[in-house]
Specification:
By secondary structure, the chain is an alpha/beta fold. It contains 9 helices and 6 strands; from the N terminus they run αβαβαβαβαβαβααα. The protein folds into 2 domains: 202 residues, Spore Coat Polysaccharide Biosynthesis Protein SpsA, Chain A; 73 residues. 47% of the residues lie in helices and 9% in strands. Helix 2 links the parallel strand 1 and strand 2. Pfam families: Glycos_transf_2.
């Protein structure tokens, strides 16, 4: 990596994260840090997950551009200059696209479905959201905070705040060491995380628009149903040709009442969510400034 960046006149700041490994990873990191001044290492007390490892790396990074890579040797450092070129051309996030993947079919298939779903729901249409080989402008992470397993959605979160997202094709090598932790459980978690991201990017600042809309729909459907049943009840007693109905014998009568109650509860929940959003608003502002003219305070 040092050699690759040296060819283009850049000096790397390499941060290696040991996410609670049980092998000799930390001993290797210590050896590399002692041998190369450009290498630093961080070791977690236990396994905290990839998002936590990336967050620690972003916090420790000193450069204006941060490139992330997995340590399984499937990503090729020779691609880094192409990432930097894309960033220099005006993009803020550049994601790698492993167009030719050397992974088993049971990993590639679900990944393609997942990427399609992410593109459809969020509008960020890149081919490989799961690819860990990415480049970012450092200041993005002053606004985008990682937790859980949200690391794969950084391009989506950045796009929602107005940062420019792109992708480049990257070389993907077969895995030579270790085992992939990909499994069925990750598919389920990925789908739930996608729902979370959809909510955060669309309704984080206006939860009533989502919860309240569902509540209003239930309330209106239940109210319309009760109005129809009430009219039917009245007509059946005014017109002899129509059989008299008894509302307590109609299951739909109870469904309408449940719909009204559910709608009212959702509306109240939406209002409470709006109050909590207003009272517990985070320090990160709900906007992102690209540039400003002279005359503004540096702290602004």
């Amino acid at each position: 990596m040092t050699e690759v960046l040296g060819k283009i006149g850049r000096t790397p700041d390499i941060v290696l994260i040991d996410d609670g490994s049980t092998d000799q990873s930390w001993a290797t990191i210590e050896r590399l840090a002692a041998e190369y001044a450009t290498v630093r290492g961080i070791r977690f007390r236990r396994n905290f997950g990839k998002a936590a490892a990336l967050a620690a790396g972003f916090e420790a990074a000193r450069g204006d551009i941060v490139v992330t890579m997995d340590a399984d040797l499937q990503d090729d450092p020779q691609e880094i200059p192409r990432f930097l070129e894309a960033i220099d051309s005006g993009f803020d996030v550049v994601s790698g696209w492993k167009k030719v993947r050397h992974d088993p079919w049971h990993k590639v298939g679900p990944s393609r479905v997942f990427n399609w779903l992410v593109g459809r729901l969020t509008g960020v249409r890149i081919h490989d959201h799961n690819c860990g080989f990415k480049a970012y402008r450092r200041e993005i992470f002053d606004q985008v905070k990682l937790y859980g397993e949200m690391h794969r959605f950084v391009p989506v979160l950045a796009d929602a705040r107005g940062w420019k997202v792109s992708e480049i094709e990257v070389l993907h090598h077969p895995r030579r060491h270790g085992k992939s932790k990909y499994g069925v459980g990750r598919i389920v978690k990925g789908f739930l995380d996608l729902l979370t991201i959809y909510f955060l990017t669309r309704f984080a600042q206006r939860p009533l628009h989502m919860i309240g809309s569902a509540g209003l729909l239930c309330f209106l459907l239940g109210g319309a149903g009760l109005a129809f049943l009430s009219a039917w009840w009245c007509v059946s007693r005014m017109v002899e040709a129509i059989e008299v109905i008894h509302l307590h014998e109609k299951a739909v009568f109870y469904f309408c009442i449940l719909a009204i109650l559910l709608g009212a509860q959702l509306l109240v929940a939406g209002l409470l969510a709006e109050m909590m959003t207003a009272m517990m608003r985070p320090n990160v502002p709900p906007f992102s400034i690209a540039k400003h003219t002279d005359g503004f305070d540096d702290a602004a």
